[in-house]
What does this fold into?
Amino acid sequence: QVFPMVPVQKQSDRYFVYKKEDWFRDDAQERAPGTESAGGDYDIDNTPTYFCRKYAYHKDVFEEDRANADDPLMPDEDAVAFVTDKILLNKENNWARTFFKEGVWNHDYTGAATAAAGSFVYWDDYANSNPIEDVTKYATEQAELTGKRPNTMVMGRKAYDALKNHPDFLDRVKYTQKGVVTTDLIAQMFDVERVLIANAIQNTAQKGKEADMSFILGNHVLLCYTTNAPKLKTATAGYTFVWTGLMGSNALGGRINRFSMPHLGIGTERIECELAYDMKVVAADMGTFLKNAVKPE
It folds into this structure.
């Protein structure tokens, strides 16, 4: 939901990035009669490339599964849902590894017990933190660097829960119609178009072990500018290139394959989900990452 998907016919290729330095330099000059106007050009970086790697997962459905399935069990439909969920969970993790960490964006800040250079007070320290002031400062910093004020915030569930209970927010909404802090109200207070809450969870324990469940995107926050659709000559922090040229793929670069596996038993079929994409940071200066907006547990 954060960065637009760019459908591509080739698994790999180049893409082009305009350099902001040439667009924001004041080079125009007063023109005297009978003289040429001031002029120039802009540079384009044609070195960035993408490569849509294929990610896949399968489940085998056996003849015995279908023969012994009781209502409402549906082995084939369940297998499709199972492999699809596995692929989407993997994609969520790949998104986090690509975009949602330190060292990716031009600005990184870390939550701390006391504010210092490069840090801010944990937002769940209600007596001392000021999240609205923090975000306003970082957003203005980013706007001055790029000409684009951030329009999107992505935050882990626990960071969102802390904001919902923060006195600064509760005080500002107590006279509204609902008197409840929502993502829309938070977006208004932070002066962004949308706030996205990362609710995806995963089990990091090995199969057969007791479940170890946690939110994939942790306690962190990403503040960024992103266009609502892929467009030429339009600024955005990132893109996801999806290989729609793969035979049978959908608009997300994915496909469900189904084929017979007779060597595993008569009637056995393999149901496989495959997704081909590449996630790219296009403009690192259009993102600000806030690590541990609330105290880590």
About this structure: The CA atoms of residues 254 and 275 lie 4 Å apart. The longest helix spans residues 75-99. The mean pLDDT is 92. The two ends are 28 Å apart (CA to CA).
